[in-house]
Amino acid sequence: MSTQTTERPETTIQEQLRDTDYAQTKTIEHMLAQSRRTVGVQIRRDFVQTGTQSKPVPGALGKLVNTHNERALDLYLLQRLCAVTDPWDVKKPSKIWARALGLSTAGSNPNYASDTVSKLWGKLVDLDLIERTRESRMAKITTLHENAKGGPYTKPRPGKDSYFNLPLEYWSEDWYRKLSFAAKATLLITSSLQPQFYLPQEFGPKWYGVSADTLNKGLGELQAADLLDYGHFPREDWGTVSVTVMERRYTLQPPFTRKLSSKTADARFDKTLARWKKGGFSES
Known about the structure:
Elements: H1 13-18, H2 20-35, E1 41-44, E2 49-51, E3 56-58, H3 60-66, H4 70-82, E4 89-91, H5 94-100, H6 112-126, E5 130-135, E6 138-143, E7 163-166, H7 169-172, H8 175-178, H9 181-191, H10 204-208, H11 212-224, E8 228-236, E9 244-252, H12 262-277
Antiparallel strand pairs: 1-7, 2-3, 4-6, 5-6, 8-9
């Protein structure tokens, strides 16, 4: 007795576009391939914190968090992914950006996705993170310096500029979709710090412009996802009954690990504690 199998009919492009998760995944896969990047996106620490070590100033990330602009952050990171070479600009139709953000481009309102993208670019322009011009009837988006002062972007110089690398796995392994806004912000903040860093949550507003609750939620989510680990290390404090207190130090895990020798990590941690005791709010 023979059995007849019925193959599932292939979906049309319009059906695929209505599946926003699928359309988003395929569009970002294309962006990753087109960028030809191999080592991720270099982002200056200025994006999360500017100022000096003794007088830090929260960066543009904190403003995005406080105004609940998760999609603007997503769009900014995608623009940084696609802007690969000098003059660090990208020109794509708005509907492609919309698909990459998981916005529907096949709904009853054909202008919704494009209008949303335009508003998000406007928020990033207002923060002086990008410059938007028109070319060939499309928006050309040019990266500006991460310190949000409107200066031109330049490639970070090893040993001279403080920056971190956002791995391509952030997109290829779907972390952009799996993580909440609080976790994304915390990931960027912790990526700017060295392994075994000290991060008291109560200083989130002064250090990075994010609330202690946001930082606490983000740290917890990263730990639950096995992206962040911590250990307890003893420290003398003669202002306590026990004299010895345990400090929690964090370290990002693959694929977001930063490499640093234990000797350097210990030295920087000791400096951080010394600055903290004196009223400083930053870590080198």
